[in-house]
Design brief:
alpha/beta; single chain
């Protein structure tokens, strides 16, 4: 891992529960692709490959169905936000690196301990390799007891004590930040049942904010100012937008937000790129694209000259923040 890097990779982007792609959704994608194909697009292998490569991402791929997990490689160190089922996928990738030989080190920060944010832990292969070292951070009390409880015999056949790696569980209550090498991680409590925490990583004048499972019920500027300050000038804001704006009103106190509120906050905080995250499990990729279309219209209507970039968090996608 390079010491001069700041890469963010999405490993799990769905909210509430893992959501595998259904056969009917695959059929829908294929039908849409075939509808825009011409005879010239299908005449030989080269033309078919070219046609496929030029399809929109939501037709030739999928945004993903694993629950929350984001990988950050920064300044020669590995930081992981949340441990949903995306952590299992990340684990397989890490085993292609020094973690295979028991020489890896990582830092996992948990927004909270609801199931969809910790259920990947028992399936994280690097935890089973002796010599690997991990620190698991959280602001919630009794953090280790919560993680051990998930793997009690009642719920899972392999106990937390079976991991061979050196795993330190660190409660950061009372602290303001944690330095991971040259990067600094700070956090902010958000409105969510049982409480959730957003995290920010700052490195060499660049920053990413991971802000999932957060609800914004009071939208007056003075109420939002602490959040705007936390998001301020971020190169990338990963934002919980599980619901549409109307759904967010209907599901008050469920602890999630919408793309429109994300746009408002990002504009106020001078964010460069806003990535919508924690996708609603009942939303197909087509639905997510529809919501994105409406959100782009909203941004154009309220800030036509702003250069805020909008994107849908997509599993496997890597963003190089130093190349921005």
């Amino acid at each position: 891992m390079s010491c001069s890097e700041f890469n963010v990779t999405f490993r799990g982007v769905r909210g509430s529960t893992p959501t595998p792609l259904l056969g009917a959704e695959v059929e829908e994608k294929l039908m849409h692709a075939l509808e825009i194909a011409t005879p010239d697009d299908l005449k030989d292998i080269a033309s078919r490959k070219n046609f496929f490569n030029n399809l929109p991402e939501h037709l030739k791929s999928c945004f993903g169905g694993n629950s929350s997990c984001v990988q950050v490689d920064v300044g020669g160190h590995l930081i992981i936000f949340d441990a949903g089922t995306g952590l299992r996928v990340l684990g397989h990738e890490l085993m292609k690196r020094e973690f295979e030989n028991g020489k890896g080190e990582g830092h996992i920060f948990l927004s909270h301990t609801h199931w969809d944010h910790i259920m990947g832990i028992p399936f994280f292969i690097p935890f089973y390799r002796k010599g690997n070292k991990f620190s698991v951070y959280g602001v919630h009390p009794d953090l280790k007891e919560r993680l051990v409880g998930q793997q009690s015999p009642t719920f899972f056949p392999v106990p937390f004590s079976s991991f061979d790696a050196d795993i330190q569980v660190v409660e950061v209550t009372g602290q303001d930040y944690v330095d991971i090498g040259p990067a600094r991680v700070t956090w902010k409590e958000m409105a969510h049942p049982g409480s959730s925490y957003s995290y920010r990583v700052d490195y060499e004048g660049h920053s990413v904010v991971y802000s999932t499972d957060a609800e914004y019920k009071r939208l007056e500027p003075e109420d939002l100012q602490p959040t705007v300050d936390f998001f301020k000038d971020a190169d990338l804001l990963i934002f919980d937008s599980q619901y549409t704006f109307v759904e967010g009103i209907e599901k008050e106190d469920w602890g999630h937000s919408s793309t429109f509120i994300g746009v408002d906050l990002a504009l106020s905080a001078n964010v460069k790129r806003l990535s919508f995250y924690h996708h609603e499990p009942t939303y197909s990729d087509m639905k997510l694209m529809s919501v994105m279309g409406q959100t782009k219209k909203y941004l154009k209507a309220i800030a036509p000259d702003n250069r805020l970039e909008l994107m849908i968090s997509h599993e496997g996608r890597t963003i190089d923040l130093l190349a921005e």
